[in-house]
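Re: fe (ii) ion structure - here you go.
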Amino acid sequence: MALVKPLTKFSNGAPKFGSNPGSPKTRASSMLRMSARAETAAAAAKKTPKKAPKTPPKETLLAPRFYTTDFDEMETLFNTEINKNLNEAEFEALLQEFKTDYNQTHFVRNKEFKEAADKLQGPLRQIFVEFLERSCTAEFSGFLLYKELGRRLKKTNPVVAEIFSLMSRDEARHAGFLNKGLSDFNLALDLGFLTKARKYTFFKPKFIFYATYLSEKIGYWRYITIYRHLKENPEYQCYPIFNYFENWCQDENRHGDFFSALMKAQPQFLNDWKAKLWSRFFCLSVYVTMYLNDCQRTAFYQGIGLNTKEFDMHVIIETNRTTARIFPAVLDVENPEFKRKLDRMVEINQKLIAVGETDDIPLVKNLKRIPMVAALASELLAAYLMPPIESGSVDFADFETQLVY
Ligand SMILES: [Fe+2]
Ligand SMILES: [Fe+2]
């Protein structure tokens, strides 16, 4: 799964990561605990492990989400007796691809991780921790959803079920690797607690398809873009996890291609006017969420030598081009007006965050937010209503699952 999730409600502001990772005031503190490997001051904690109070993590608009769906409807959709569009040969081929497990031996750490983490100090260290935490949460969210789908579809469609199980294997690997990265910073994400404490967002199956397809493809473009940039500019390579992104992103690409095949098997989700409206809605949600999230974390992107907005626009444009192969309509993100709208949303979001950080009482804060939320909603609507690009593969026979290497 990618690092961003669709927009579904308005936020009270940005998720914050405090200067003290152990502070109970921070969102992260509810999920992060000190590792037994901590040094110096944390050595005491090794003898008497100090656990942060477990309170449910703060849910915000832009935080990575956990998803659940209507599993009974999923079973109906993948019942080969009912749905004659299911191309069993194609799913069987995909299953063999997943079984090959190209990255079985890819995620092996070395001592460079800890050494690099120790060199990262000051604000960049904190922002790295936040990057690892958010990425781990997003990957783990994919693991939970795919694992459950693998379990629930076993009887109805064993091939599709096994692919979901193998995708959950990949996501568990990704989440585990990121969590090991946190251990370099003497922290660990409590995934068991996260599973129970986090709120789950319900999406009907067709929305799971749109959201997850985009999430996987945007994840692919983010990882490969960071990897290629650091390969060309090795002086910014400050933590070895990025070296793993080239093979890692191919997992995300395969996951996205599987969702392409799933959507092709459900043409009712792709071939009418409602599908076009929802496709545009999900594209907008995913792109805006990523842009606003990343613009709150420019220090991270600057730290690895990237211009945040240029990076995001590259990822959005490439994801949109990929998505146009399967969605019946996409946004015209290459129209300069689209970026201007995104930039205005960033400005409004910054003002919203500033209101959240004042000492005003909640009522005053909410009153101050009203015109800003209205302005944000108006920008979103205007972006949504921009003339779209008709796309997709009406003739599915011409559509080939493609891996982008
Ligand atoms: Fe992943
Ligand atoms: Fe994935």
